[in-house]
Amino acid sequence: MNKTATAEMDSSESHSDTDTLVEIQDVSKTYDGETLVIEGLNLDIQRGEFLTLLGPSGSGKTTVLMMLAGFETPTGGTIKIGGKEITRVPPYKRDIGVVFQNYALFPHMTVAENLRFPLDVRGVARKEAEKSVDRALEIVRLQGFGNRKPTQLSGGQQQRVAVARALVFEPKLILLDEPLGALDKNLREEMQIELKHIHEQLGVTMVYVTHDQAEALTMSDRVAVFEAGEIQQLAGPDTLYNAPENAFVAGFIGKNNRLTGKVESSEGKHCVVQLEDGNNRVKALDIRTDGPGSRTTLSVRPERVRLGEAAEGYDNVFEAEIRETIFMGDHVRVGVAFGGDEEFVIQVPNTEERAALKVGDKVRIGWRADACRALDSA
Description:
The protein is an alpha+beta fold. It folds into 2 domains: about 5-250, Rossmann fold (3-Layer(aba) Sandwich); about 255-375, CATH 2.40.50.100. The chain has helices spanning about 5, 60-70, 110-120, 125-140, 155-165, 185-200, 215-220, 235-240, 245-250; strands at about 20-30, 35-45, 50-55, 75-80, 85, 95-100, 175, 205-210, 220-225, 230-235, 255-265, 270-275, 280-285, 295-300, 305, 315-325, 330-340, 340-350, 360-365, 370-375. A 6-stranded mixed beta sheet has the order 6-7-8-3-9-10, with helices on both faces. Strands 11-12-13-20-14 form a 5-stranded mixed beta barrel. It has a 5-stranded antiparallel beta sheet with strand order 15-19-16-17-18, with no helix packed on it. It is globular and about 75 Å long. Residues about 1-15 have low confidence and may be disordered.
């Protein structure tokens, strides 16, 4: 996929050049001189946005962050911040705040001393530094904690201190490298909302790295989905979830049913695909097929599929067999066998009717053509 085109594909979310803070231009990176972990990357980051770099381990997202921070040097290409090239500028001269997963706090210093450290390095006067420390602690809701040592704080409080230290000198850009990875589920979710509120309050540009797609959807203005050193899609959370551009993004972002088959016909924005079982045909949006005769992968979200009487009248209606039902609290996950897929999943509301769903029963399932996307060749 062309990286430049990918990064600019969602014109509805484009910005003018004057809004651009960071420009990554044709950047490549190799560690061994042979294998490129990043190849020809082009990406603009807008002033004041919360951009998440999302992808599995080894996809290249952390390498991009480390090059932005100055801890890694690109093999080729340029990086600019505010129009100034900083490709080979050392980290301490980049005016960037960095938050790490392991907090990286000085254990022998108090919270206030940890926050004052980057100000001391920059030669900020003591009185002004103390005001900045107080403001930063207020932002992360840790007023009164200045005299404590990091070991006297909970994990969530230590992470707040790490965020405050990145904010205290008012950088143009803050980089966050999986900062919530060490926290338990409840605290992680709480900190997601907290970081989102801090971003909204300050309007500072944030670049966030994670492998957690739910985290990315919750917090971000835009998300760049990485795989094999390339951006597979760059868009807002709604677009990524509802309109994935390829099978990787569809499978990586949220729950997804994946069906494979051959394009039988194509007309306008839709196509008809004969599934692997040879018995069923599905009408879908033709997003990225090579036309009639080509193989393709279909993507349909579990919550877009209707069950029983609710399925009638849709573009695609089929018979399936219930294989399992799993109670999930606010909804029920129903697994059916259909179209050669033994694990086709439907998400239905938790209502009284769920009691009628029995393993082994034959049921009707259905969905709109526009809820199904025909993507890459299978």
